[in-house]
Design goal:
- Helices cover 71% and strands 0% of the residues.
- It is mostly helical.
- 36% of the residues are buried.
Length: 155
């Protein structure tokens, strides 16, 4: 699945930037440009329609980790070695949060695999509560039943 491949590349770039160890693959400015261009395209291709074996790498290991990295005060963000990458994740994701929330909510019914639904719900909690953006601004792309479900699992 192309979405899984792109997600794994994003994770490798972020990990190599010193946030989770290893030499950087790209300088911070290039990471910002890459993430800013690639993440919106990835999100537009989601949710995954088939091959749900790829749910975990996409929703939990990529989007979930990016959300954790960018959320101010989040434990993972404070543990990251590279403040520039934290700021990049925060900046890119803040602009895309309504789309991220929509994708994650729409992914839940079909999500498959151990811990995937739980990982998505956790990522949704970080997206909705961790960025200081009013929830009403994040749910614009959701149907009323999806909003009700989100409220039932997060509040």
């Amino acid at each position: 699945n192309a979405c899984s491949g792109v997600s794994k590349i994003i994770v490798a770039i972020i990990q190599s930037a010193g946030t989770l160890g290893g030499p950087p693959l790209l300088p911070a400015a290039q990471i910002s440009l890459t993430l800013g261009q690639v993440l919106p395209v990835l999100l537009s291709a989601l949710p995954i329609q088939s091959d749900h074996e790829e749910d975990k790498p996409v929703y939990v290991e990529c989007i979930g980790v990016l959300l954790d990295m960018g959320a101010p005060g989040n434990l993972m963000a404070t543990m990251a070695d590279n403040a520039a990458v934290r700021d990049i994740c925060r900046g890119v994701l803040t602009k895309l949060l309504p789309q991220v929330v929509t994708v994650l909510v729409k992914a839940v019914p079909e999500a498959d695999g151990p811990g995937v639904r739980e990982g998505i719900v956790r990522a949704l909690g970080v997206a909705v509560n961790g960025y200081g953006i009013p929830p009403q601004q994040l749910i614009t792309g959701l149907a009323q039943t999806e909003v009700q479900w989100l409220q039932s699992v997060l509040f």
